[in-house]
Amino acid sequence: MQTTTLNGELFARMVESGAARLFAYRSVVNDLNVFPIPDGDTGDNMYMTMDSGAANASEAEGEALGVIAGRIAKGMLLGARGNSGVILSRIFAGIAKGLEGVGAADIGTFASAMQNGVTESYNAVRKPVEGTILTVFGDAVRKANSEAGDETSFESYFDVFMDELRASLERTPELLNVLREAGVVDSGGAGIVYIAEGMREALLGAEAGPRTGAASAAHRVDTSALTEDSPFDYGYCTEFLLRLRTEKVGPVGGFDEKPLIDWLMENGESVVAFREGSIIKAHVHTMTPEAVLAHCHEYGEFLTLKIENMMLQHNETNIRNNYVPPKRAKKRFGIVAVAAGEGIRNTFLELGADAVVDGGQSMNPSAESFLKAFDEVNAEHILVFPNNGNIILTARQAAELTNDADVRVLPSRSIGECYAALSLLDISSGDPDEIERGCAEVMASVKTGAVSVASRTTERDGVSIREGDYIGFSEGVVRSDAPDPESAALALADSLSADEFGILMLVCGKDAGTNEARALADSLQKAHPRVEVILLDGGQPIYDYIMILE
């Protein structure tokens, strides 16, 4: 039977199925990382954005299509993370605008709403770049809309839409040199393909796969949902990565994972399990996670492990509705910065930041995280330092959703720019425009570089990179490759003309050894005697060292 009318219930199922499909393939999207360091997070960002919309959809049964679409869009706008997540949220915001006031849509109304999604997403980006999620979604909508007529079913529409999505995705390297050089397609475009596949599956009647509920996991847990006398009906959501061990299973190459997966199927529900090399990835709902873990432990060792009480997850909706952030006395100016790492966070607070949002590379905060920080700061004018190019759009989206303050997002792309701006911040004029201009001037005078392990062998910016080596880079340009982080950092400092600056701050990551960091600081001081080298324990992930030159 062909679908000729789309109602709210079906659209909600399609969005939930799209989120579940992306959840299953989010690591594939993450791995489509053009920069050769282990910081790919597009799949996670898009999934958490999508899941926020799906969570809102599940709260509104039996309502009109326009109402459901509006709920989904609101959830995604608040939950948006990263550039691709923000663009994704704007796609669904545009669709919601096109469906406003609609009880159920025919194909013409839906096609028009999809075109609204294209327009809204392009408008969200100040300088749209072709060869990204914008192009992939836009191409597919134009193709599907051009072939849609009054008699077109939603199944036929999505057939054309899916074919063009995949074709456009394959063309993205032709539009972006950076994709062609890295040998990958656009990660955001791949994400929208998986989402659309899930939506189409729901349209055809398939049940949505499991999701972890990432949207609600970001909120505090209401432990009162389970008392001493409460019935326990939901069990535990258990996820893990299991490394098969030769000492337990014999030669890993000859191991048959089917009996293990069959056991999980017999002893749990909502099972998603598969093998990649010597790693078993598993998701299972169970009343007895200890039994699951004990059985699986017979085959190897756990690399990651997460157990969540689904009864508490079930109650998280009330938590979101009842949460009220603490407010300070109203002030004239406030500062919100983004940081990953306790040392960097404390440094920003010491320099005058009123609130620090947790986040950075591979852990982009949501728009809702910014909104909570704005409420906490409670100022007339708020300066926001995203400190990462993939967080700027999210911060701007949160600023657009704020009515209680004049929020100004300074497009800082590194903690170095923020550190310099806060160090020299002068608000004595009381003029927010002048203060913003002053921050921009200071930020432009700083250079920031970083050192991280290379995730693959490639050649970039004229540098031959070997997987497992360490690379030094700045502003997206690879400047050095070396077998150890210290050598990469020394070469990076030379490449950035460290002698031309007065201060070199070396920010050590959580994986940098204390003795090694001190030795590197000494080596940098000897190599650049006219520069004052300052060592800071930042505690940041991904980057062994961050180098700030001012």
List keywords for this structure.
550 residues; alpha/beta; Serine Threonine Protein Phosphatase 5, Tetratricopeptide repeat; Alpha-Beta Plaits; Rossmann fold; 4 domains; six-stranded mixed sheet; four-stranded antiparallel sheet; 22 helices; 48% helix; globular
Fold blueprint:
Elements: H1 8-30, H2 42-58, H3 65-79, H4 82-98, H5 107-123, H6 133-147, H7 154-175, H8 177-182, H9 187-203, H10 214-217, E1 236-244, H11 246-249, H12 258-267, E2 269-276, E3 279-286, H13 289-297, E4 300-309, H14 310-314, H15 316-322, E5 331-339, H16 342-350, E6 355-358, H17 367-377, E7 379-385, H18 392-400, E8 406-409, H19 415-423, H20 432-444, E9 447-453, E10 458-460, E11 463-465, E12 470-474, E13 477-482, H21 485-495, E14 503-509, H22 514-527, E15 532-540, E16 545-549
Parallel strand pairs: 5-6, 5-7, 7-8, 14-15
Antiparallel strand pairs: 1-3, 1-4, 2-3, 9-12, 9-16, 10-11, 12-13, 14-16
Short description:
The protein has 550 residues and is an alpha/beta fold. It contains 22 helices and 16 strands. The strands form four sheets. It has a six-stranded mixed β-sheet.
Determine and state the CATH class of the largest domain.
Answer: Mainly Alpha
Overall pLDDT, averaged?
Answer: 88
Distance between the termini: 67 Å
Q: Please summarize the sheet with the most strands.
A: 6 strands, mixed
Structural class label = alpha/beta
What name does CATH use for the topology of the largest domain?
Answer: Serine Threonine Protein Phosphatase 5, Tetratricopeptide repeat
Number of helices: 22
Describe the overall structure.
48% of the residues lie in helices and 19% in strands. With 550 residues, it is α/β, with parallel strands linked by helices. The protein has 4 domains: 8-209, DhaL domain (Serine Threonine Protein Phosphatase 5, Tetratricopeptide repeat, Alpha Horseshoe); 231-317, 2-Layer Sandwich (Alpha-Beta Plaits); 324-444, Rossmann fold (3-Layer(aba) Sandwich), CATH 3.40.50; 447-549, Hypothetical Protein Tm841, Chain: A,domain 3 (2-Layer Sandwich), CATH 3.30.1180. It has a 6-stranded mixed sheet. It has a 4-stranded antiparallel sheet with strand order 2-3-1-4. Helix 1 packs antiparallel against helix 2 and helix 1 packs antiparallel against helix 9 (187-203).
